[in-house]
Automatic annotation (TrEMBL):
EC number: 1.1.1.25
CC annotations in GO: cytosol
Assembly and oligomerization: Homodimer.
GO MF term set: NADP binding; shikimate 3-dehydrogenase (NADP+) activity
The keyword Oxidoreductase is annotated on this UniProt entry: yes
Underlying gene: aroE
Positions of the Quinate/shikimate 5-dehydrogenase/glutamyl-tRNA reductase domain: 116-195
PANTHER family, alphabetized: BIFUNCTIONAL 3-DEHYDROQUINATE DEHYDRATASE_SHIKIMATE DEHYDROGENASE, CHLOROPLASTIC, SHIKIMATE DEHYDROGENASE
Protein name: Shikimate dehydrogenase (NADP(+))
Reaction(s) the record says it catalyses: shikimate + NADP(+) = 3-dehydroshikimate + NADPH + H(+)
Residue stretches making up the Shikimate dehydrogenase substrate binding N-terminal domain: 8-90
Domain of life: Bacteria
Amino acid sequence: MPAAQFAVFGHPISHSLSPQIHRAFAQQFGIELDYRAIDAAPADFAAAVQRFFAEDGRGANVTLPHKAAAFALADTRSEAATRAGSANVLTRMPDGRLAAHNTDGAGMVRDLTERHDMDLRGHTALLLGAGGAAHGVAWNLLDAGVATLTIVNRSAEAADVLADAIGDPARAHTRYWEDLASIGSYDLIVNATSAGVLGAALQLPLSLVGARALCYDLSYGAAAGSFLTWARTAGARSAFDGLGMLVETAADAFELWHGQRPDTEPVYQSLRQPAA
Ligand code: NDP
């Protein structure tokens, strides 16, 4: 029997760790897996996805810049995907239709609360960015018990759109990026901008970091370096990058597809090792 077919779609995609992560998970259960990285330009994404699933594809991860398109082309959508308006997982159902799901927020919160043992309840949270990833994590931060969620984005309109979608003005509201130096300090600061992956360093005031604050960058590796350095300089209690989130979101997709929960810790640790 041929190995079950899975893939990650993105543009670019050569840097993706998803094939390595899913193969490592599959090994834990002795599952034969064909997992590919498929580079599809935005104009070709829908056709590439249709072709993949028509040719026996069973599941796909979706990354930048296709998450909104993946959400749009699915036949059914989970609650997490619907509230984020984007999908990072597509699954072919037995009747051939495509189901969209978003595991970003659950993966991030599990990384923080389980791997890093952080209790987010009662924290005042600052969310930097209002793109796809910020939409993916905002509701989960609220579900995890943060007291308030202040959303600040370079373009104010996008922050307003996210706050309006959440629709809980007592807890989730926006401030202007220009006012970051005067809005006080926070217990939790989440960098959900793509500045790091684009090679830009955010110019953030040290005053944002409250006593014993927790800082988290959704990006990882070199892209997270500038934010994590800023956080430590400002005296943050802890500063983490998003590598653990990546592994946790992959584990959720793996469980959706294979019905088995992988052990994420050895995979996370092996990715943390510097290349020999
Ligand atoms: P989007 O393109 O949807 O959004 C980008 C966001 O970054 C926007 O809010 C944009 O603001 C902001 N931004 C970009 N450059 C700057 C800058 N120089 N200064 C201030 N703000 C800036 O990207 P995503 O939301 O999908 O991804 C964001 C990050 O999250 C990426 O680094 C991605 O790799 C990471 N990520 C990590 C995951 C993981 O598993 N660890 C999962 C998902 C994402 P504006 O609206 O003004 O343009």
